[in-house]
Design brief:
The protein has 280 residues and is mostly beta strands. The protein has 2 domains: 172 residues, Immunoglobulin-like; 81 residues, Immunoglobulin-like (Sandwich), CATH 2.60.40.1120. It is built from 1 helix and 22 strands. Strands 1, 2, 4, 5, 6, 8, 9, 10, 11, 13 and 14 form an 11-stranded mixed beta sheet that branches. A 4-stranded mixed beta sheet has the order 7-3-12-15. It is globular.
Amino acid sequence: MIRKKIFGIVSALILSISVIIVGCDSTTTATNGSDTMGNMGTLKVKMHDAPANYDSVNVSIKSVEVKDTSTDTGWVKINSPQKTFNLLELTNGASAVLGSKELPAGTYEQIRLILNKDGNSVVVDGTKHNLFIPSGAQTGIKLNINAEIKPDITYTLLLDFDAARSIVETGNQHSQHASRYLLKPVIRATNQAETGNISGAIKPVDAKPFIYAISDSDTLSSTKADTTDGSFKLVGLKEGNYTVSVEPADTTAYQTKDTTGVAVTIGETNDIGTLTLSQK
């Protein structure tokens, strides 16, 4: 199981965010402000996931939109993926591009993901369960991002969709089933250009470990080692020093391992080599 410390409060995010569920309001495909040539930049939105103890977590995204709250332009559509993503396939450095669009230069304070009514599900021990979205079918996952778009520059927004914390199991008194699953999204947003990564490998491979990047007792990134070669990649980390903590799936067979003082530099990947877990 992913350990409790992953739920600690993140004290310093690269971008200040808040995640709430909101109903839809008007959306426009028009751009914000002047579209004068030479004053346009590009916003690219990518999504990846922290690992979770499910077979799959499927989220169906209808559209991706941004908004500059200092204007009355409304929501600007970046893309309409109309696609279901298995979040658990977006770990260990893998990501999915949700959309990319040229926008007038300026600061865009908010982004939202509009989910489809159907196609959201979680698979637990081989059984598929629909994910219930409390606010209904036309739900928006709204984030404060403060993305500064500059002329002729691509701003890549990296959304870390934390599947483990986003799914809540609860009793359902109106069904014969013992429980139902709620989707309450927990997402961390970062400007990819202001982050770096940590990579490496874990042996033995059969330890099937989870790996965490920890700063000041807060877990800022996590992943699960590849089951074929033990490789891992922790992404979206701000510059600084981290403790890389490795926790095997079976803690009765292998010991956990912490490596302190692992440096992250913006725009680079620090390969820390192979870490070997000791048997108990």
